[in-house]
Amino acid sequence: MTEAELDFAEVRRSFDQAAASYDAHAVLQREVCDRLLERLGYTALKPGRVLDVGTGTGYGLAHLRARYAEAELCALDIAPAMLAAARARLPQPGLMQRALAQLAPSAARATHLVCADMERLPLAANSADLVWSSLALQWAHDLEATLRGFHRTLAPGGLLMFATFGPDTLKELRAAFAEVDDAPHVNRFIDLHDIGDMLIHAGFASPVMEMEMLTLTYTDLRSLMRDLKGIGAHNAAAARRRGLLGKTAWRRLEQAYEAKRVDDRLPATFEVIYGHAWAGDKTQRADGRQVIEFAIGERRRKLGLA
Predict the structure, then answer these.
(1) Sign of the C-alpha dihedral, residues 252, 255, 23, 153?
(2) How many Å separate Cα 293 from the centre of its chain?
(3) In what order do the strands lie in the sheet with 266-278?
(4) pLDDT above 70 as % of the chain
């Protein structure tokens, strides 16, 4: 068992418990989502089907619904309580829309909410034109396998756009905990360059990666820990230390973090990675070889041989 391995029962439980408090603490998450939404403005893509991976309480989903009013949306999350909150955020159809849905179901653009693991997408191949994910990929058990699933799900020419956290995220908290004990207390995050390599290996074309550092400041350590708990971002490492810190360990943690105080505030750094890549024509294998399909049966029928 490595420090990087996550306990996914704990991940699901944490986000289920945080659904009611999430929006009150998700200042950074909304800011990153807004910046990711801005990046959609750089593309002329008009998707017919959009997959929102890690929809949470639906902040990004509501914006996607407004931006792509004619698209069919699928919102996926591992936590049922998060999906319930996302459903409540979406505008409810009026009488006219419900009547239209009954008369012409294909004309009513649906929003489907699906509880599933992003590494095992329950969606058909080539079924989405846009896969969107804001701050969910850091919870992937196997990120490259997850990206391969995204590529399978995207239609030819489809777009993947995402934001996730990089290795310097919560570096102050990680360093402070290191002065208390050697157990993992802060999840590990994957480097931008490694994510770019994984995109290529997963079959994506023309990946573009960006990174920026965002810093939140707090009056004290308890406020930071309250925010992390409020959004469900507990330490979910499988090798994590069980139970609460004792009073002595907590005092040592506070003292270690106090050394990082600047202008009477405690900083919390978040390394945010933005990326996008195209599915391409999907006739190329990941190793670059061309895939050629022969419709032998159809040709034999046309020639009268079958």
Answers:
(1) negative
(2) 34
(3) 111-115, 72-77, 49-53, 128-134, 154-165, 266-278, 205-218
(4) 81
Q: Which of 202, 171, 204, 209 is nearest to 188 (CA)?
A: 171
d(CA 18, CA 186): 18
CATH of domain 8-302: 3.40.50.150
205-218/128-134 β-pairing: unpaired
- Compute how many other C-beta atoms are within 10 angstroms of the C-beta atom of residue 213: 12
- Predicted pLDDT at 6: 66
**pLDDT (mean) for 92-112:** 59
Min mean pLDDT across 7-16, 205-214, 270-279 is at 7-16
CB atoms within 10 A of CB 12: 21
How many residues appear in the chain? 306
The answer to whether 158 and 128 have CB atoms below 8 angstroms apart is yes
Confidence of residue 107 (pLDDT cuts 50, 70, 90): very low
Residue-range domain boundaries for the chain: 8-302
